[in-house]
Design a protein that fits this description.
Length: about 325
């Protein structure tokens, strides 16, 4: 699936915080990763780990009380944090597009679908309204919407969740972006539509030559669609590698815990594995590893010192002092492509 090692998007030491009455909450802490040309990189983790905030930081859409406290984001070698807001508006939707998490709240309820899709085309090009309308209708048809002319005149509340999700994808892809950020694109839609949406994103990625940053908490989605995976926990990326490495040779205890919690379809009376304890509060992370209070491998070093993301082999990186002791139990269900 992956076509090149060329880096399109590079995130370096990104830190994003939110100031509140309880203190400063660290949403994203020293996160680094690259998105290569033609690949799909998945970011997986539980709710609140920093996945969506990372995506919003890339788009420079963090608003008060949030702020980007450090790091750099390079797109084709250009640091996005050095651009003016006008220059960023040109990139958003045109070069880097985003499918937001909630289709109902992402669409404006008082404007018809046609106005919302054509708006981006008119802003980023010299097209006439009629030309933008025709492209919008074509894009709706390409994402599998029947009767695209009728949908152009419809308001969001008249569409099903799956159709609204397809509309968001059509809006994001209307200007043929280089990078598509898809934030939980299958949330709140049924399983059949989920499969259709994921297939659609893959097909359009190959057709348009895009790179995709896919954000999800669903390991099945990651296994089916991604080339590489970054696992996030409590504001950090704790492990990063190819899909095969993460699913078959995980080296971080949290990754093993996620994979071990998947129910086995062939064991109907199986007792589910859980990760003990709770995620630490973002306003009060421990001084060492954020996972140390829930980890069976934790030592004094884990309590005192935070591990950095370190490459162990062939691009497989892990942030764990005891990664050599971590392995996946034999009875864990492994996804197969």
């Amino acid at each position: 699936m992956q076509s090149s090692d060329e880096s399109i998007l590079r995130v370096e030491n990104l830190t994003t915080v939110f100031d509140g009455s309880d203190g400063m909450a660290i949403a994203v802490d020293d996160v680094s990763f690259t998105l290569r040309k033609g690949e799909t990189l998945g970011i997986v983790g539980e709710s609140g780990c920093g996945k969506t905030v990372t995506a919003l930081a890339i788009m420079r859409l963090i608003r008060r009380p949030g702020r980007i406290a450090g790091g750099s984001i390079y797109f084709h070698g250009c640091d996005l944090f050095t651009l003016t807001e006008k220059e960023m508006r040109f990139l958003r939707g045109n070069e880097i597009a985003m499918v937001f998490q909630e289709p109902m709240t992402s669409l404006n309820p008082v404007f018809p679908i046609g106005d919302q899709i054509t708006e981006g085309l008119l802003y980023h090009s010299n097209l006439s309204w009629n030309e933008a309308y025709d492209i919008s209708v074509e894009m709706l048809a390409r994402v599998g919407i029947a009767g695209p002319h009728d949908v152009m005149a419809s308001f969001p509340h008249l569409l099903s969740g799956g159709m609204r999700q397809r509309v968001l994808i059509a809006m994001a892809l209307a200007c043929n972006p280089t990078v598509l950020i898809a934030d939980e694109p299958t949330t709140a839609i049924d399983v059949t539509v989920q499969a259709q949406v994921l297939k659609l994103i893959n097909e359009l990625k190959d057709e348009l030559g895009m790179s995709v940053l896919l954000i999800t908490h669903n390991l099945g989605v990651i296994a089916e669609t991604c080339d590489r995976v970054a696992v996030m926990y409590a504001s950090h990326i704790v492990e990063c590698g190819s899909v095969h490495e993460i699913f078959y040779q995980p080296r971080h205890p949290y990754t093993v815990g996620l994979l071990s919690s998947i129910p086995a379809y062939h064991l109907p009376r199986e007792r589910l594995t859980i990760i003990p304890g709770q995620v630490p509060r973002p306003t009060n992370y421990p001084p060492g590893c954020n996972f140390q209070s829930r980890c069976d491998f934790a030592t004094e070093k884990c309590i005192l010192h935070s591990p950095s993301l370190t490459t162990i082999e062939n691009g497989h990186a892990v942030a764990c002092w005891n990664s050599d002791r971590v392995s996946l139990p034999d009875n864990v269900v492994r996804y197969r492509r």
